[in-house]
Specification:
Blueprint (H helix, E strand, L loop, with lengths): L1 E3 L8 H27 L6 H20 L10 E2 L6 E3 L8 H8 L2 E7 L16 E3 L2 E2 H16 L5 E5 L4 H8 L9 E5 L3 E2 L1 E2 L19 E2 L6 H8 L1 H7 L4 E6 L9 H8 L10 E7 L9 E5 L2 E5 L9 H5 L6 E10 H10 L7 E6 L5 E6 L13 E4 L11 H8 L3 E4 L2 E4 L10 E4 L1 H4 L2 H6 L10 E7 L1 E4 L4 E10 L4 E4 L4 E9 L7
Helix pairs in contact: 1-2, 7-10
InterPro entries: UDPGP_fam, UDPGP_trans
Function: UTP--glucose-1-phosphate uridylyltransferase catalyzing the conversion of glucose-1-phosphate into UDP-glucose, a crucial precursor for the production of glycogen.
Protein name: UTP--glucose-1-phosphate uridylyltransferase
Length: about 500
């Protein structure tokens, strides 16, 4: 899978004219094809699909029109004073205020992704991460706890995709008896485009008859889909003013009262912030994460896919770009309504090239939710502690959150006070034996003690007995054809284990 944002290549004028002519033609051909797809679905579904196709046409025509890079490297300015606020400088609101503040908030979780990269069927949010609780369980517990403690009613909104909606609807029934209102809406469903012909590959408009022909267009689609669902207007009518948006697999993305206070009770000398991006200090493990820049007098998100090849090393430099985007975002509801109605959302298009199982090369046009920052007024960054960024993308992340490094309370994870330093260990588990959740779990009789671990690398056919303790730097490598069983009760501190170690039941 290759993601890139348009970059400029010089082409001889003859071939440029040819490309222009074929592109002009492409839009007309796509419009005809979309009309044909619409005609194949039941009339009741047409208005909704027509709306989604309008969004797709907008993206597609911009994709055809945009030549050259979406930004020029030389125009990046230094972040101005006050553009990024240090979290430690925020004040904590008094308890009597919190109830009123939370009545102004909506919590949105991006729930469009599947668990396929971790070898799981269905939505990623139903993978069990700790004590047999799923991402969704933990989110629901957090918000229910807030509602109980502060006697308020913060709603939880899930943005699903056509991939996750059915399964999610079944799962959320089990939360019926809780003090929590859950709303869902679907992000758009767009047709995948053949890379050569630039035409949709779908034979008809029935998404589920050929699911590979469709895709959800990235979480940048949130604003329009939220607006189209009617939920945005409903919450504005109720007097709510901000939403907190985050990925459902980021276990650190809990409702933060200090940031909410910054938004609801701003310094009278300053602009009201319509948009806040939580950023955190970049380490060498985060060099690919998007960063905040000042560009044409506005803060905006810069993703690695937008960076010209010759500047990629600059982009990855921890000294030049100190922060990266956690994708925990706070946006003002009436400002979302304004930018959607004005049509002023112009997020950079991410061109995602995919190779389907039948050998077809397709492109998907996507956008990122944080890229809308430049479309809002008074956008700022807040430099938050690393603990607010705890994503579970791989089983190596799962190992950390299942271990004694964290304690769990009311759906929120906190680093154990026994750990002497706040950074999380660096863990690399070999893809062949550990990538899928089921395989991963079968290799640990119990999750090892990681309190004093700095770095763990495991490669090959390795299993762990009960009550293993890993400290410092531990590297375990079983060569091809060999197997290593780490015995129960073993304490490995600054050790390299290689070769073959079998433990058989006597």
């Amino acid at each position: 899978m290759i993601n890139k944002i348009r970059s400029h290549q010089r082409t001889p004028s003859g071939s440029r004219d040819f490309k222009e002519a074929t592109k002009r033609d492409a839009l007309a051909r796509v419009e005809v094809e979309l009309e044909r797809l619409l005609s194949t679905i039941p009339e009741t579904r047409r208005p909704q699909m027509h709306k989604e196709f309008q969004g797709f046409k907008k993206l597609f025509s911009r994709f055809l029109a945009e030549q050259g890079p979406s930004m020029s490297w030389d125009k990046i300015e230094k972040l101005p004073e006050g553009a990024v606020i240090d979290y430690a400088s925020l004040k904590t609101p008094t308890t009597d205020n919190v109830h009123h503040m939370l009545d102004k908030l909506v919590v949105v979780k991006l729930n469009g992704g599947l668990g396929t990269s971790m070898g799981c069927k269905g939505p990623k949010s139903v993978i069990q991460v700790r004590n047999e609780l799923t991402f969704l369980d933990l989110t629901v517990q957090q918000i229910e706890h807030l509602n109980k403690i502060y006697k308020c009613n913060v709603p939880l909104v899930l943005m699903n995709s056509f991939n996750t909606d059915d399964d999610t609807q079944k799962v959320i029934r089990k939360y019926k008896g809780l003090k929590l209102d859950i709303y869902t809406f679907n992000q758009s469903c767009h047709p995948r485009i053949n890379r050569e012909s630039l035409l949709p590959i779908a034979k008809d408009g029935n998404v589920y008859s050929d699911i590979e022909a469709w895709y959800p267009p990235g979480h940048g689609d949130f604003y329009e889909s939220f607006y189209n669902s009617g939920l945005l207007q409903k919450f504005i009518k109720e007097g709510r003013t901000y939403c907190f948006i985050s990925n459902i697999d980021n276990l650190g993305a809990t409702v933060d009262l200090n940031i909410l206070d910054l938004l609801l009770n701003p310094d009278p000398q300053k602009y009201v912030s319509e948009f806040v991006m939580e950023v955190t200090d970049k380490t060498r493990a985060d060099v690919k994460g998007g960063t905040l820049i000042q560009y044409e007098d506005k803060l905006r998100l810069l993703e690695i896919a937008q960076v010209p090849k010759e500047h990629v090393d600059d982009f990855k430099s921890v000294s030049q770009f100190k922060f990266f985007n956690t994708n925990n975002l706070w946006a003002k509801l009436d400002a979302i309504q304004r930018v959607v109605e004005q049509g002023s959302l112009n997020m950079e298009i991410i061109v995602n090239n995919k190779h389907l199982s039948d050998g077809l090369n397709v492109i998907q046009l996507e956008t990122a939710v944080g890229a809308a920052m430049k479309c809002f007024e008074g956008g700022i960054g807040v430099n938050v502690p690393r603990s607010r960024f705890l994503p579970v993308k791989k089983t190596s992340d799962l190992l950390l959150v299942m271990s004694n490094l964290y304690s769990l309370s009311n759906g929120s994870l906190a680093m154990s006070p026994q750990r002497m330093f706040p950074s999380t260990p660096l863990v690399k588990l070999g893809d062949n034996h550990f990538a899928k959740v089921k395989e991963f779990l079968n290799r640990f009789a119990t999750i090892p003690d990681l309190i004093e671990l700095d770095h763990l690398t495991v490669s090959g056919d390795v299993t762990f007995g009960r009550g293993v303790s890993l400290k410092g730097t531990v590297i375990i490598i079983a060569n091809h054809g060999d197997r290593i069983d780490i015995p129960s009760g073993a304490v490995l501190e600054n050790k390299i284990v290689s070769g073959n170690l079998r433990i058989l039941d006597h």
